[in-house]
Design goal:
The structure is a single chain. The protein has one helix and five strands; from the N terminus they run βββαββ. With about 70 residues, it is of the alpha+beta class. Strand 4 and strand 5 form a beta hairpin. The radius of gyration is 11 Å and the shape is globular.
């Protein structure tokens, strides 16, 4: 399954807003910390392992395309 994710700094629960899954992260946008947090939150949201979630595009952007396997 391919999903579009919009990342917002701060706290909050993942929510679907329009065409995006909105993820709030407290992690810094440095050294991949935010990306790891995003993968963790998406995995929890969909009930899959973190290894089943992969960023396809947008590694340095706040709008990302993720692939979730196992759904």
């Amino acid at each position: 399954m391919i999903i579009s994710v919009k990342v917002i700094p701060g706290t909050g629960k993942p929510e679907i807003s329009g065409e995006y899954l909105v993820i709030h992260t407290k992690e810094k946008f440095e050294k991949g910390l935010a990306n790891r947090d995003i993968i963790s939150q998406v995995a929890r949201f969909y009930g899959v392992n973190q290894s089943d979630v992969r960023i396809k595009s947008g590694f340095t952007s706040r709008k990302k395309i993720l692939e979730v396997a196992g759904l």
